[in-house]
């Protein structure tokens, strides 16, 4: 993956890997405090949106397990690295995937990368006199939705 990503996009630091291998539940905090966290990611990658497809293809080719990392709360327990996983595990931190790709003010639609933060989205949408609604922090589905490249190309040509 070093040939695909820049040096600052690949993190091997043990403390950061530990942070990407758990959330904030009581059981996870206990496991960390008592050194019982069984497995953490072997690396962290911070891809840009245009690199996501390449990352998945490279991981598939080399049998690398990818675990997406968003806010890090782990409410879905998706950050837990399976203890019996033999493959390399890479945490894919989406925070650098944080741009608004396009805004269609007429139809009140937007294509926003999955790592975008609600308050920043609200600031950008306000420039077009748009908003996400009364509970922007709960509208993750709205701004996590991503068009595939064919749909995006069709929209950009229109």
What can you tell me about this protein's structure?
This protein is an alpha/beta fold and 158 residues long. The protein has two domains: 7-93, Uridine Diphospho-n-acetylenolpyruvylglucosamine Reductase, domain 2; 100-157, no CATH class. The protein has six helices and six strands, in the order βααβαββββααα. It has helices at 14-19, 26-33, 52-61, 118-126, 140-144, 149-157; strands at 10-11, 43-45, 65-69, 89-93, 100-104, 109-112. A four-stranded mixed beta sheet has the order 1-2-4-3, covered by helices on one side. It has a two-stranded antiparallel ribbon with strand order 5-6. β5 (100-104) and β6 form a beta hairpin. The model is unreliable at 136-155 (pLDDT under 50).
For the sheet with most strands, the description reads: 4 strands, mixed
Provide the gyration radius in Å: 18 Å
Q: Pick out the low-confidence regions.
A: 136-155
Name of the top-level CATH class of the largest domain: Alpha Beta
Number of domains: 2
């Amino acid at each position: 993956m070093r040939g695909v990503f820049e040096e600052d996009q690949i993190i091997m630091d043990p403390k950061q890997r530990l942070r990407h291998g758990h959330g904030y539940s009581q059981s996870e905090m206990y496991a960390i405090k008592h050194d019982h966290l069984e497995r953490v990611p072997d690396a962290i990658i911070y891809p840009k949106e245009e690199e996501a497809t390449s990352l998945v293809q490279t991981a598939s080719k080399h049998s690398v397990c990818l675990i997406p990392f968003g806010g890090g709360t782990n409410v879905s327990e998706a950050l837990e690295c399976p203890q019996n996983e033999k493959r390399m595990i890479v945490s894919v931190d989406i925070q650098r995937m944080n741009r608004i790709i396009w805004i269609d003010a007429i139809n009140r639609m937007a294509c926003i990368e999955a790592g975008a933060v609600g308050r920043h989205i609200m600031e950008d949408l306000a420039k077009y006199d748009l908003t996400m609604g009364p509970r922007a922090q709960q509208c993750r589905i709205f701004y996590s939705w991503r068009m595939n490249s064919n749909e995006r190309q069709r929209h950009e040509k229109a």
